[in-house]
Every structure is written in C-alpha cells, then in structure tokens.
Amino acid sequence: MNQTMTSAPPTLPSRLPAHHVIGGASVAAASGATLDTVNPGTGQVIGTLPAGDASDIDRAVAAARRRFESGQWRDMKPAQRKKLMLTLADKLEAAAEEFAVLETIDSGKPISDTRNVDVPLALGTLRFYAEAIDKIHGEVGPTGPDKFSYAVHDPLGVIGAIVPWNFPLLMAMWKIAPAIAMGNSMVVKPSELSSLTALRFAELALEAGIPDGVLNVVTGTGQDAGAALALHRDVDMITFTGSGPVGRQLMRYSADSNLKRVSLELGGKSPHIVFADYPDLDRAAAAAAWGIFYNQGQVCTAGSRLLVQRSIHAEFVDKVLTVARTIRPGDPLDPATQLGAVISEKQLEGVLTRIARAQQEGAALRLGGSRARAETGGFYLDPTVFDTVSNASSLAQEEVFGPVLAVVPFDTPEEALALANDTEYGLASGLWTGSIDIAHAFARRLRAGLVWVNGWDACDITMPFGGFKQSGFGRDRSLHALFKYADMKSVTISTPTLSSLGVLPA
Ligand code: NAD
Asked: Signal peptide: which range, if any (predicted)?
C-alpha cells in the first residue's frame, strides 16, 4: 500500500455487510432475528447482523457439503485453485482500504493498524497458501514389486471455523486460506462482535469466481450459531481461535457429536524476559511497552508478564513508563491514533475489574488503571502498568486481554526460567540478552510454541504459530497449517511381478 493511502483520513463505506453468505446467496437469518453491530470507538449502533441459529448453520453446512461432494472445488487442478485464490487476493488488495475501515469501525482497532498490519497480513496469508497448493506432493511407499503404494493428502470435507474479535479478518484468513487451498469447503462463524470483514470477504470470493458453497459465512452468537456448528454431525473439523473455556466446550461438542477434529488456538500469559546484559535497554523497553499495548492489549501473544532482572529493574521500568506515557488512546479513525478502543463495554468493565483486583492483591499501580475518553461513548482504557507483581497473583496468572502490564522482578537466570514457565499457558515467550548461551538455553527450555530472542512478536507466515500446554494445539500459518486440513490416505495397488507374469523366471 502506498504512503498517501496509509496517512489519508478514511472514508466510511457506503454499505455495511448485513447478511449471511450461504451457498452463494446473501440471506437473512431464517428466524429473522438480528444482532446490533456496535462501533467500539463511539459506542454507537452502526448496523445489524443476522442472529444465526441452528437452522442457518444447517443450510450453510448443506451448501458446503454439496459443493464438496460435487468435486467442483476439491477436484479442480491445484494450479486452477491457485489462480482463483490469487484473483481473490487481487480483489482484496484492490479493496484494502474498504476492509481496513470496516475492521476499524467494527473492532475499535486504529486505522493505521488495520491499514498497515491486519489487511496486508491477511493478504499475504491468502497469497502464501494460494502459491503453496500446487507445490504439495504425496509419497510413494517403498513396498516392493508386488504393490504400488502411495499416500496423498485428502481434504477433510466441511471445515467449521470459529474465530475471535481481536484480529477478525486475519484470524479468519489464517484458517480460510489453507483450508480452501486444500480443497475443503467451509462454514465460518465470526465473532458476533466483529463480523463485517468476514462477510465482505465471502462476497469477494464469489466475485473472484470461487464456486458458491466453498466459503459460507454465518453470523450469530457463540451459544447459538457457534454451538450449532460445533455440534453439527456433517462438519468434519472445527478450527478455532478464542478463549480457553470455549475451547474446552468445543472438545465436548466434538465428543458429543461425530468426533470431528478440533484444532484450538487459545490464550496466553506470555513471559517477556529482560536480562541486565542486553546492551540496548531503550530498544527492549519500547518492545516491552508495545508488546502489551499493541491492539489495546487484546493480543493472544501479548507480553503481559514482564520479567526484569533486579539489577536493572528500576531503570528499566522507568524506561517502559516513558514509552507508555506517549501511547494515548484516540479516535480509531484518526490516522495518527496508535491506541484505539477495546472491543466492547463488557470487555472494558472486565479489564477494570481485574485492575481493581490487582490493587487489592497488593500490586503497585505505576500508570493508568482507568477508563479514558468516556465522553466519546467509546470503550477506551489508559495503558496500565503494575510493578512488583507476584507471579502467583491473579494478574500474573490470568489473561486480562487488555492494556495491562504486570512487571515481575527476578535475580538469576534459573529464577527467570522457573517464573516464565510457571503458567498454565504456553503460547509466546521472549527474552532480551547479550549472551548467545542464555538465548539458546532459554529457547530450548521455555515451554511455549513461540520463542522470540531480542525482538518481540517477530512473526512470519512461513513459521508455525500455536501453543503448548493450555494455549491449545494445532498450528496456524506455515505449510503445517495446510496439512491440518487434510487426512493422509494410503492407496495400495497390487501389481503382478515380472516373475508372476512369466517374463522373468520365478
Ligand atoms: P471467545 O472464546 O469468547 O469467542 C471466540 C469465538 O467463539 C466467537 O466467535 C464466539 O462467538 C465463539 N463462541 C463462544 N461461545 C461458544 C460456544 N459455546 N460454542 C461455539 N462457539 C462459541 O473469545 P474472544 O473473546 O472472541 O477472543 C478472545 C480470546 O481469544 C482470548 O482468550 C485470546 O487469548 C484468544 N485468542 C487466541 C489466539 C491464538 O491464536 N492463540 C489469537 C487470538 C485470540
């Protein structure tokens, strides 16, 4: 995207998506019920969405199944699927500004982030899997001359994707792009708090020539549309990003229905460790601040536990506070805003409750702790920093999912490692050190799916993303995610040997 576009004031879209996309048609909920779309930046209702339920999910799963069984997508030459997905990517790129604005008014994310991060990363994800799909090979088995055996990646069938509100388009794309590239059909259930970009993307897919029924989007609450999708007996897999409690529920739904596969990307309480020997503490402090305040702290990989070696503790916390004081909440549609609104009033209240509990538990509040910009009607929070937090406290153990940092001092590397791993989660982790030995030792022993050394959130589509422990299982991104949406099928053809044919002596 060019510079003019990234700094220009946004224009609001003339129309907001307001219907499910099922079998190529834009449709209302069968019940006629709707949900409000609220702009977190203003607290205002800006539109309505279908409040989907089991009957809408039934229609969408039937459309996805029909398309899958027709073979029109799964049996299409991979190079042709690639071509259509790249056409879709071109359309998304042409509509990038529309998508960025939709995402901002739906989720409260700053327009500078949706323009420069969310939409470009979603586009990169789509192109990565489109480009990959005609480069995937099966295997030929070393079974001897009486058999010809090969193994192929067979698409699973109908994939249900249930996604959260913190990166609505990007999280959906991490699932849609590999799943459809592999030849599956999908029913996507976006968060009821942020459904606009998924709906618009499904419309674009039809415009790009992706056959109807390949990508269906049904909106609605988790309890209604989400549960119906996860309990559906004709859905082969649920791929999920969201909270731990819902992840557990999805495993129960699978057990109670058809044992569909379940892939879970859940939360985190990621340790961000700073050793005294790292030579550029200003750089580390800026990363520590942005590691928690980016996206209003609503990032599953947020560096929410900052572990700082005691000899630099006071100096380093002052540096973090200096950066944090420059990060002020502002209107998400203002291109200069770096910190937007949190997703909802409920989320705002939940974060404030956790802040109050941390104070009761004795953590030292050094910055923030309050609602901001209340006069706008939007859901804003000041960046908040607690110092000298006990790692056993609720603030250090429970995911806040807001702009709240817990600083935990430590003395030795052994203590840092123990504190870092003392959590039920295991999504991201990171350390800043001048020692290559410490870097390697920690990379080996940190129990987390992601380890970043001397740079927080150094992500790339080529590398797998996902958690250890209660942060879930299954990986998004990278070629591993493609294979998640396929089963291995072994085919064996019995073949006469040359001797059994009499060509060679027995
Ligand atoms: P959530 O679990 O409340 O909701 C996620 C999705 O699940 C939504 O679409 C929701 O409608 C649906 N849902 C809710 N109840 C359901 C039910 N009973 N059956 C089926 N579906 C149901 O999470 P959220 O509040 O939207 O997102 C925040 C959470 O997501 C945080 O915990 C965060 O850490 C996590 N997250 C994880 C990752 C990751 O990759 N590990 C990425 C982003 C967010």
From this structure: none
